[in-house]
Amino acid sequence: MRILVVEDEHRLREGLVDLLSAADHDVTAVGDGRTAVETGISETFDLVLLDLMLPQMDGIEVCRRLRQSRPSLPILMLTARGSEDEKVAGFAAGADDYVTKPFGVRELLARIEVFARRASSAPAEREILELDGCTMDLGRHHAIRNGDMTHLTAREVGILRWLHRHQNRAVSRSELLERVWGTSGDLQTRTVDMTVAKLRQKIERDPTAPRIVVTVTGAGYAWGED
Ligand code: CA
Fold this sequence. Notes:
This protein has helices spanning 10-22, 33-42, 59-69, 84-92, 105-121, 154-165, 173-181, 190-203; strands spanning 2-6, 26-30, 47-51, 75-79, 97-100, 128-131, 134-137, 142-145, 148-151, 213-216, 220-223. By secondary structure, the chain is an alpha/beta fold. The chain has 2 domains: 2-120, Response regulator (Rossmann fold); 128-223, Winged helix-like DNA-binding domain superfamily/Winged helix DNA-binding domain (Arc Repressor Mutant, subunit A). The strands form 3 sheets. Strands 2-1-3-4-5 form a 5-stranded parallel β-sheet, sandwiched between helices. It has a 4-stranded antiparallel β-sheet with strand order 6-7-8-9, with no helix packed on it. A two-stranded antiparallel ribbon has the order 10-11. Helix 2 runs parallel beside helix 3, helix 6 (154-165) crosses helix 7 (173-181) and helix 7 (173-181) packs across helix 8. The radius of gyration is 19 Å and the shape is globular. It starts with a strand and ends with a strand. The structure holds calcium ion. Calcium ion is lined by residues 8-9, 51, 53-54. Calcium ion binds next to loops.
């Protein structure tokens, strides 16, 4: 499985990476909440191991945000105290299960095995969007137009995914910054415009008259033409 480990304690994080890699999992590890959201939205994982107490953004908020853009992504919370309040808050934010720290290696691997079995028994879910003659395979990060395949970057995939998921409304540039880049305010919203312009060149029939990622004057961007 592709597993995202979110843990700020360096030694524990490295320990988890070693443990999970040794169990043949493909592991990516990050040490703060903001990076966790950014990575979890822009890349594809089968499971997230999420610590609760994190710098920049706590695990509950990370869980809530990941849940919004990836409803079916399994999230296993690592709670330090194992208090009932924490567990309830974790489940309310969308966690699927929790492990109380300190945990035994065998217990953790057994829990992960449950997710692995579920993942292998569920039909593989391909994320394919089609609009105006363009096929966008978000899982595989490519778009096909007129038989030509183009690679899509993680940000481009993140933008398409977020706009499609919220296709009933316009999405502001600052919302895209927050949801796709995992940041707010630091970067200028101009970054979003430049990324959208590149994306349009890859997927649109005519980037000057776009029909897939459309500009909504005064509001931002939206999925598809009205
Ligand atoms: Ca921590």
